[in-house]
């Protein structure tokens, strides 16, 4: 059976979530977004949510042990190819993931790095709006809703993510460069890294990723 397990890597706002959603739907893969899981936990006031909330508000990473436990749970009964969106984010998480995938005989096919410059990230994240009801993601500059800040899908008033303010965006970018960017060399050394230009139209980026998936 073809191996269709991927990691989507890249700075905040690179389009990991947007592309993971499209590709997972189109190709019958499971999207595992650690950011979405944590936000849901915060919304529901669970133990995990209470723990993660402060880190997320500050734009910092939730501790590795917690994230590794969360991913182990997510992969416990997986029976399809998967896309990890936003995990791993530190070398320790990547090493833990390697161990887990080896134990489960689930090799990665590729790690897709969505490459987007910082200036573009700041523009995109400042203009992102999300639907608090159905989770649809918009962008006031690039992909606006049809009616002023109202969700096209379910008609709910859109909101801005708590961490999409200028100060936290800057912190998230710093954290990315310090703690997550070392994964580029880590996966390059394993022959898994494929860099995709994350600027341009989302459809073009999807096509570029699909070329990797079906290579
Ligand atoms: P998470 O939710 O993963 O945030 P992130 O990595 O900062 O990524 P984003 O969701 O902001 O961006 P994205 O790349 O998915 O872009 P999107 O497609 O939305 O994590 C949030 C927090 O949770 C972290 O800060 C941390 O605290 C914690 N956390 C999560 N995982 C963790 C882990 N493994 N370890 C520790 N802590 C963890 O697109 C962004 C915007 O751009 C949207 O408006 C979209 O419409 C628009 N857009 C998308 N593509 C394009 C395009 N091609 N052109 C123009 N606009 C576009």
Description:
With 215 residues, the chain is of the alpha/beta class. The strands form two sheets. The protein has a five-stranded parallel sheet, sandwiched between helices. Strands 5-6 form a two-stranded antiparallel ribbon. It starts with 5 loop residues before the first strand and ends with a helix. The relative contact order is 0.18. Bound molecules: BIS(adenosine)-5'-pentaphosphate (AP5).
Helix-strand layout with pairing:
Blueprint: E1 6-9, H1 16-27, E2 30-33, H2 34-44, H3 47-58, H4 64-74, E3 82-85, H5 91-103, E4 110-115, H6 118-126, E5 128-130, E6 137-139, H7 166-180, H8 182-189, E7 193-197, H9 202-213
Parallel strand pairs: 1-3, 1-4, 2-3, 4-7
Antiparallel strand pairs: 5-6
Helix pairs in contact: 1-9, 2-3, 4-5, 6-7
Bound molecules: BIS(adenosine)-5'-pentaphosphate.
BIS(adenosine)-5'-pentaphosphate is lined by residues 10, 12-18, 34-35, 38, 55-56, 59-62, 67, 86-89, 93, 124, 128, 137-139, 142-143, 163, 172, 202, 205.
Attribute tags:
single chain; about 220 residues; alpha/beta; five-stranded parallel sheet; two-stranded antiparallel sheet; 9 helices; binds BIS(adenosine)-5'-pentaphosphate
Total E-strand runs:
7
Helical residues, percent: 40-55%
Report Rg.
Answer: 17 Å
Q: What sequence of helices (H) and strands (E) makes up the elements?
A: EHEHHHEHEHEEHHEH
Spatial ordering of strands, largest sheet: 2-3-1-4-7
In short:
The protein is an alpha/beta fold. 48% of the residues lie in helices and 13% in strands.
């Amino acid at each position: 059976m073809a191996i269709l397990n991927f990691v989507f890597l890249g700075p905040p706002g690179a389009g990991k979530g947007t592309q993971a959603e499209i590709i997972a739907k189109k190709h019958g893969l499971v999207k595992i977004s650690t950011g979405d899981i944590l936000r849901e936990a915060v919304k529901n006031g669970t133990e995990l949510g209470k723990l993660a909330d402060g880190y997320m508000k500050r734009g910092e990473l939730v501790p590795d042990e917690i994230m590794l436990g969360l991913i182990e749970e997510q992969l416990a009964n997986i029976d399809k190819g998967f896309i990890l969106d936003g995990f791993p984010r530190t070398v320790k998480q990547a090493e833990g993931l390697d161990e887990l995938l080896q134990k489960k005989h689930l090799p990665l096919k590729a790690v897709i790095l969505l490459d987007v410059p910082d200036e573009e990230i700041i523009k995109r994240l400042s203009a992102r709006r999300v639907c608090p009801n159905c989770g649809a993601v918009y962008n006031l500059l690039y992909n606006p809703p049809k009616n002023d800040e109202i969700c096209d899908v379910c008609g709910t008033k859109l909101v801005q993510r708590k961490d999409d303010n200028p100060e936290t965006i800057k912190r998230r970018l710093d954290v990315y460069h310090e703690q997550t960017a070392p994964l580029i060399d880590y996966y390059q050394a394993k022959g898994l890294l494929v860099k995709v230009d994350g600027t341009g139209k989302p459809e073009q980026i999807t096509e570029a990723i699909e070329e990797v998936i079906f290579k």
